[in-house]
């Protein structure tokens, strides 16, 4: 520790962090019904970015509902607060230059607009994982649709709670006729378009 | 996008992220009175780490109270919730391999123990910025002590709200007889001790 650099008195800026990581922070906000394939695509996208050397975080129910938002219920107010907090955390990651994938049903236009406003439109890319309701219910990977149909889960999106499809999402992925690798390729194209200054 | 790597179906692990960044995630939790020098030392520490090539985030009132925790007041319950949320966010950063500096008064032992438990003891380094109350009040950089004395701020730590000094902080920095660069050197030593596998 004999050769400490001169100490500056300001926090490290976003630009400096982005230069260090050689990437630009941005937030991919995945919206879609339960069972639409959000997590599968988010996972494959993260894995691909990682293999290209990008630093990338996925925020999803698994790491948010069990931690930061473990004191929120599924009332309308708490669902809005859930999304607000996620957007604020995504913003922090983004401002560190990290590519951040948020994977949440986020069923209403208002919720997603709030997220866009918090994160800032320049850093926000809405990804609509557009799988028809009937297909999601057929798949029912977690058995949630069956439970909702029996009335065991109240306010289930698509059954007794609305899903408002985005009408101007930056990226739309139709999973019925698209392979995962093609969905990922579509997402990667956005990275390559938006991060032109980087050679990874 | 013709040469996509084979797609794996699991999220990128903490270990993989740490390998990519060539550093280990950890949380430095700064505690101390208002005016003790937490922010000054945190800033100098971040700047030094950055110059050595580390990815490092500072969470403080400026980026937390204005964003994630902008719906919390200064009641006892909200102060505890403030610290809980910060700890959860610090944990997310840490699990991405990022060195995270949290700079908050966090006046009670219970609050700091909660933070330690959330983040996990292996990743948590408590840093007590130990400046005597009298000195902090004399400095009064933000004029807060004067306002608290006039009764304009209620529940001000050190005046009408207690500060419980840590009795087993991993690092104690006494600012009265220590220069900033020496405080930073002490903190850097911890980095070098805990991250032995890295050559930056």
Helix residue percentage of chain A: 40-55%
What is the strand tally of chain A?
A: 5
What's the CATH C level of chain A? Alpha Beta
CATH topology of chain A: Rossmann fold
- Major sheet of chain A: order of its strands? 2-3-1-4-5
Helix-strand pattern of chain A, N to C? HEHEHHEHEHHEH
Low-confidence runs of at least 5 consecutive residues of chain A: 1-6
Query: What oligomeric state is this?
Result: homodimer
The N- and C-terminal alpha carbons of chain A lie at a distance of 32 Å
Main interface: chain pair and counts: A-B, 48 and 48 residues
Structure class of chain A: alpha/beta
Q: How much of the polypeptide of chain A forms β-strand, as a percent range?
A: 5-15%
Q: Can you identify the CATH superfamily of chain A?
A: P-loop containing nucleotide triphosphate hydrolases
What does this structure look like?
The structure is a homodimer of 200-residue chains. Chain A is an alpha/beta fold and 200 residues long. Chain A has a single domain, classed as Rossmann fold (3-Layer(aba) Sandwich), CATH 3.40.50. In chain A, 44% of the residues lie in helices and 14% in strands. Chain A has helices at residues 14-21, 38-51, 61-68, 76-95, 109-119, 133-139, 144-149, 180-194; strands at residues 26-31, 56-60, 99-103, 124-130, 171-174. In chain A, helix 2 (38-51) crosses helix 8 and helix 4 (76-95) runs parallel beside helix 5 (109-119). The longest helix of chain A is centred in the middle third of the chain and has 20 residues, at 76-95.
